[in-house]
Design brief:
Helix content is 75%, strand content 0%. The chain has helices spanning 3-13, 25-43, 46-75, 85-97, 103-120, 125-131, 134-158. The chain has one domain (3-158). It contains 7 helices and no strands. The protein is mainly α.
Length: 164
Amino acid sequence: MSKFRQFIYLAIGTSFGLGLSPIAPGSFGALVGVAYHVAIVLWLPASWHLPLLVIGLALVALANHLLTPWAVEYWKNEDPGNFVLDEVAGYLVVPILFRGGELWQVALVGFFLFRIFDIIKIPPAKQIDRDMHGSWGIILDDIVSGVYAALVLYGLVWAGVMAP
């Protein structure tokens, strides 16, 4: 493999190097998803938000699927911690499913909830993380964690803690 291709794969798989952080690489890597979400909401018409978030999630999931064999070989690990496309995808589930609230609330609270759920892995995320392998095993537990985060955001709105 050429050095240039290796560089491109590393840049994509680590969310432009954020996943190479020695501390909390998943959290830093997920910030690319937050930045993408915020940019869409701030700079594009509301009618574009959901389609572009879904397209972004699909592209990240595709990149995760295509680059997983490379990442597993590169880091010699079935689920490499520096390969953070799954965290980007998991965060993007939050604004796709939670269609309310102020941008800062969704981005900030949604990000922290997603990361908490991704770290503690409430079932079925725990079973997916433990039992599934390959690209689906890497990404699906994060998708489940994103769903949990969105559900908690709806719960916060229902409880009156967050604006609808």
